[in-house]
């Protein structure tokens, strides 16, 4: 009788463990999708992404899948896979902060792990390259891009923290900001709307723009994320 109970317990335990995965050798594929739902292996910090997990066989019961960075327990998303399906995908979300860890140290690659609610590991993604958000700097009224040279130089602040900077008008990419010049104060300038197109040209949806003066209405109109940098900081 005791032997029978032991065998029954083993069978029940095996059935319980196999209820989610019909085959213990089931494999998974975990990947990142961009805003067009296309698989990518390289993103820029702040890009809108989704995380997808695919199983080699359909699952036998509904299960919540939780995603986290491989080197930590920091949760980055979740999805629910329903019975009979082989995959699920998170809702779109911005990958803000993926390039930096909690101590402010740059992380050039990330690995995403998947776990179920029982904290059982279901697999992990291949390394994902994460580029830092570029910094776009907008000069103020009666000024020009050279205002930002101390930040753009090869030995400047941005280079010291591993970031690449762009100043509107510096020639790295197209875009012109005309707010006037003390040398020719009566010359015609661009309108606010025209100047707003210059930071848009260089400023992606998730870049950080530094404003030279709080009166930079053109820059604020052309971007959504910005930080104040007062005159005289350098």
Shape: elongated
Q: What radius of gyration results from the CA coordinates?
A: 26 Å
Number of helical stretches of at least 4 residues: 5
Q: What is the CATH architecture assignment of the largest domain?
A: Sandwich
Low-pLDDT windows of residues? 14-23, 203-207, 213-234
CATH H-tier superfamily of the largest domain: Immunoglobulins
Q: Regarding CATH, which class of the largest domain?
A: Mainly Beta
Task: Assign the structural class, choosing from mainly alpha, mainly beta, alpha/beta, alpha+beta, or little secondary structure.
Answer: alpha/beta
The biggest sheet amounts to: 5 strands, antiparallel
Through-space gap between termini: 85 Å
Overview of this protein structure:
The protein is of the alpha/beta class. It has 2 domains: 106 residues, Immunoglobulins (Immunoglobulin-like), CATH 2.60.40; 94 residues. Helix content is 18%, strand content 29%. It contains 5 helices and 16 strands. Strands 1, 2, 4, 7 and 8 form a 5-stranded antiparallel sheet that branches. The protein has a 4-stranded antiparallel sheet with strand order 6-5-10-11, with no helix packed on it. A 4-stranded parallel sheet has the order 14-13-15-16, with no helix packed on it. It is elongated.
Can you lay out the helices and strands and say which pair or pack?
Layout: H1 2-17, E1 28-33, E2 39-40, E3 42-44, E4 48-55, E5 63-69, E6 75-81, E7 87-89, E8 93-94, E9 109-110, E10 112-116, E11 121-124, E12 128-131, E13 135-138, H2 149-152, H3 157-160, E14 165-167, H4 192-202, E15 208-211, H5 217-222, E16 226-228
Parallel strand pairs: 3-12, 13-14, 13-15, 15-16
Antiparallel strand pairs: 1-2, 1-4, 4-7, 4-8, 5-6, 5-10, 9-12, 10-11
């Amino acid at each position: 009788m005791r032997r029978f109970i032991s065998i029954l317990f083993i069978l029940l335990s095996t059935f319980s463990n196999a209820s989610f995965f019909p085959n213990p050798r089931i494999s998974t594929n975990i990947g990142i999708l961009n805003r067009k739902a296309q698989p990518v292996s390289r993103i820029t910090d702040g890009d809108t992404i989704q995380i997808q997990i695919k199983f080699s066989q359909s699952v036998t019961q509904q299960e919540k899948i939780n995603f986290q960075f491989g080197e930590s327990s920091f949760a980055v998303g979740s999805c629910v896979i329903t019975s009979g399906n082989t995959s699920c995908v998170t809702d779109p979300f911005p990958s803000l902060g993926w390039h930096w860890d909690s101590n402010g140290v740059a992380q050039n690659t990330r690995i995403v792990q998947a776990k179920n609610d029982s904290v059982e590991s279901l697999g992990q993604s291949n390394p994902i390259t994460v580029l830092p958000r570029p910094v776009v700097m907008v000069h103020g009224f009666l000024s020009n891009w050279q205002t930002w040279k101390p930040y753009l130089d090869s030995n400047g602040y941005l280079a010291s923290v591993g970031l690449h900077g762009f100043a509107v008008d510096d020639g790295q990419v197209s875009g012109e900001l005309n707010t006037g010049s003390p040398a020719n104060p009566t010359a015609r300038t661009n309108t606010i709307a025209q100047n707003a197109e210059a930071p848009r040209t260089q400023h992606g949806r998730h870049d950080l723009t530094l404003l030279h003066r709080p009166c930079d209405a053109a820059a604020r109109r052309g971007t959504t994320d910005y930080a104040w940098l007062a005159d005289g900081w350098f």
